[in-house]
Write a structure and sequence with these properties.
Length: about 90
């Protein structure tokens, strides 16, 4: 959830589904930056429950934006779902 503190390998739980869905992807970047998002995982089918595993162990402590992007078969997508997660080892 928003502002949750995590460490190690984290289960990312949620729902990824939209009409005519082509795929979803989970990504992250340091919060408050304009860096490119780094890919974590994704699938080409709807999901409800564990969407992926995020290994935070190589990351420095700090706040990160975790986002879920769900893309339809025309390449369009609604605004991504983004939450700030605090990594502390």
């Amino acid at each position: 959830g928003q502002n949750q503190t995590v460490s190690g390998v984290v289960q990312v739980v949620g729902t990824a589904n939209t009409p005519n869905m082509q795929y979803y992807k989970l990504e992250f970047r340091p919060a408050g930056t304009s860096m490119e998002f780094a890919y974590i995982t994704g699938q080409d089918r709807p999901a409800d429950g564990v969407l992926g595993m995020w290994d935070t162990s190589p990351l420095p402590d700090g706040a990160y934006t975790l986002r879920l992007v769900v893309v339809d078969n025309t390449g369009n997508y609604p605004p991504p779902c983004e939450v700030t997660i605090n990594v502390v080892h």
